[in-house]
Design a protein that fits this description.
Blueprint lengths: L3 H10 L1 H12 L2 H17 L1 H4 L5 H23 L4 H7 L22 H5 L2 H13 L2 H11 L5 H8 L3 H24 L8
Helix pairs in contact: 2-3, 2-5, 3-5, 8-11, 9-10, 9-11
Length: about 190
């Protein structure tokens, strides 16, 4: 039987990962720290819950996702974010010509699986996400990282389904541009 100190040590080793995950979602150092602390406390209280059924990191991340949703709910109740700021922050109309076609064709992603395995990619992705408007980044993270459906995202952010779809579209387009410029474009070999 493993000692409680061993379990505490194992979950504490996951703290840096959990903190990065929470900061990426919440974009607030204090809120991220609070969510991680709540996660670690819940994990300590529910040690028997992991019981070898899942990887410790996966289990902790699942708890953290719920804590993040709670933090987003609290934040949305405490302050309202203007949709006008979202609209001003990033029209992507320059990506398309007058007929609605791509102004410049997207570049080929030769080896996306290899890129995903590299830790540097996630650093670039985090930088790109931080450039998005806060509400847009939250909608994207809720959909792509937390797996929430449109209805839940709308409820959490206080937006309509149409607004959610527009925000997700804008997030994907902005992230595509950012990743092409900062990651995929940087991966091309020099021309001779």
């Amino acid at each position: 039987m493993k000692s409680p100190d061993d379990f505490r040590s194992r979950i504490e080793q996951q703290r840096p990962y959990l903190l990065r995950y929470a900061r990426l979602q919440l974009r607030d150092r204090d809120a991220a720290e609070d969510a991680v602390q709540e996660t670690l406390l819940a994990a300590l209280r529910g040690e028997a819950g992991v019981a070898g059924r899942s990887d410790l990191r996966t289990w902790l991340t699942g708890i953290l996702k719920h804590k993040i949703v709670d933090a987003v709910r609290r934040a949305s109740r405490d302050s309202a974010v203007s949709l006008d700021a979202e609209d001003e922050a990033g029209e992507l109309h320059e990506l398309f010509d007058a007929r609605g076609h791509w102004a410049a064709r997207p570049t080929s992603w030769d080896h996306p699986d290899a890129a995903l395995e590299q830790a540097q990619f996630f650093a670039v992705l985090e930088t790109c996400l931080q450039q998005l408007p806060v509400k847009t980044a939250r909608a994207f993270m809720m959909r792509e990282h937390m797996g929430l459906d449109t209805e839940d995202i709308c409820k959490e952010l206080g937006i309509t389904a149409t607004n959610c779809w527009v925000m997700l579209y804008r997030a994907r387009m902005a992230l595509r541009l950012c990743l092409e410029g900062r990651w995929l474009g940087a991966q091309e070999p020099p021309r001779k």
